[in-house]
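User: Please go through the entry that follows and flag anything odd:
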Amino acid sequence: LSTLANFASLIITCVDLSQFPHDSDDFILGWAIFFTTGVCIFYIVYGVIMKAHLPSYIAYSVNLIILLIYSAVSYNFNKTDLEDLARLGIVASLCVVPLVSLASAMWKHAAWRKVAFHQSCDPEDQRMLNSRSLCQSLAYVNVQYQFSLVIFVADARFRTDWIEIGSLVADIICTTVWVVCGICGIKYENKAAVRVFFGFSVCPLAYDIFRWADVWLKSPPMLYIIAINACAVIGLILTVVVMILMKKVLNNFGKGVKDLENGVPPSLCTRLASSERDGVITADGMATSVAQKPVEVTFSD
């Protein structure tokens, strides 16, 4: 049902885009809605339905928040547009019904939660794996928020001087380096890449603050002020959350979480099992192989 509702919202957005003039405020906001809806469809189809991936569901929920804000802004400035009203109703139902029902099921039925989201048997391993996966998912979502800000800057009213153009180019380059180093650092447990990630984290933070201040200084239509402020504030919060998660992931390097993510059975990559499977457990937790002595069998009459 969520997938069908997202596709219905996408169709409504396409109809809107075909009706608005290319230089109108609604046209630019429509492209931001179109892009965000497409990302939501990807997360709900690939991450939730096909992979049953809990961090992907959280990322999908974060995308729904900004999609609801965009839809509300679009309807507020076009209250006679039935398509905008229909899209707002669809997105609002997406935010309320599936999220509440899933949260209730996850909270009350632990057995269902383990079946639905492929959790390992070891709770600590699962916490580390969730931190790792959630950090990656939210990093991708943050890039999507940065791209939404770039869509809004496509309006000629924002391309007024070299500072605007320079900040846009710098944000694209730095955000790309930020997410690539972050994902590679997590995937390969590379501490050098993670350090670069933390160094470049200043860039998305600075761009969100710059875009927030710039939209107030240039005083564009209220549609832009609300949409850009919402996108910049949520992006700012996401960047901070991703940095906190990355610090937790960095502390878990070398503890076998990479093996869990690569599909190694939990019984073979938990810290206890890894020290048991090859022999006896020593005082420092390392496994020592047990020499197999030949057994002599004698027969008596």
In short: The beta strands are 279-281, 287-289. The radius of gyration is 25 Å.
